[in-house]
């Protein structure tokens, strides 16, 4: 419905409004460390109603250009959007290029997966616009090389993940409202996984057992010890709702049945804490967008 609307400013068609949603890890278990250093996980991913938005214009000279204020903080060579577009060009031998506009609203490096989601949306959108016709499986293979969380965003459904996040099983979870607190601290995923105090031996369990057991994040205690801002945010939030950390942090989330309860708690956030309210969603808005083409 939003595809290829002529845009006076750019004078050529731009495909607008491709969403790149945030995710939460509703639980995160670290089961094992592989010989290559990576950790085997069991985790449950759910999307949030908060998204970055990307617009794309196909070009015919093979060049890739990103328009974003993010280039003040992330060099083009490191930006997952351009890396994703280059990987798709290489894999599919496509000679087309693209201009890409990013409206970035998701906090970076907080365990909400915004960078991975931007990369997934780029792969899915350009696969459609360049007509490269790769399957979700092929796109996920390309995406996994960019980040462990990219496949779940390509798949587009709330999912239980194993391995390093690539073995996915769709789950129909409840869709509550969340208050997400964004502590002003950067937690390095690599540093958490390399830390000697990280528990790495949670028993692997069947999905049915995991879904009915209390949910936990194995990285949370360590991150709270290393970053008091994360511990403080959780201490405040658990007074209002069952709360946990997402991914390797730093963001924490509290679960509410009704939007107004989450908004009410947001309104009481102490000075110096930032957060937002979003709904948990099982079908990604990217998946919905694709089905409208
Ligand atoms: C653990 C999760 C859960 O969603 O955390 P968040 O990043 O979202 O917080 C993700 O799988 C993270 O995925 P992603 O952020 O893409 O991680 P990558 O860039 O692939 O890896 C960063 C570094 O973390 C370590 N790493 C990452 C994932 C994993 N399963 N085992 C690891 O040991 C590796 O040292 C790697 O070099
Ligand atoms: N398009 C992008 N958006 C966000 N971060 C990006 C992007 N491209 C590269 N990055 C890098 O990826 C890192 C992780 O970003 P993000 O996915 O938001 O966090 P997390 O992995 O903690 O969920 C950022 O700190 C940034 O250096």
UniProtKB/TrEMBL annotation:
Could you provide one GO biological process annotation from this protein's UniProt record? isopentenyl diphosphate biosynthetic process, methylerythritol 4-phosphate pathway
Residues that hold ATP according to the record: 107-117
Alphabetically list the UniProt keywords: ATP-binding, Isoprene biosynthesis, Kinase, Nucleotide-binding, Transferase
Alphabetical list of Pfam families matching this protein: GHMP_kinases_C, GHMP_kinases_N
Instruction: List the active-site residues.
Output: 23, 149
SUPFAM superfamilies given for it? Answer: GHMP Kinase, C-terminal domain (SSF55060), Ribosomal protein S5 domain 2-like (SSF54211)
- From the record, give the transmembrane residue ranges: none
The source's domain of life comes to Bacteria
Reaction equation(s) it catalyzes: 4-CDP-2-C-methyl-D-erythritol + ATP = 4-CDP-2-C-methyl-D-erythritol 2-phosphate + ADP + H(+)
Task: Please name the top-level EC class of this enzyme.
Answer: transferase
Q: Taking every annotated instance into account, which residue ranges of this chain make up the domain GHMP kinase N-terminal?
A: 79-156
**What protein does this entry describe?**
4-diphosphocytidyl-2-C-methyl-D-erythritol kinase
Q: Which organism is it from?
A: Shewanella gelidii
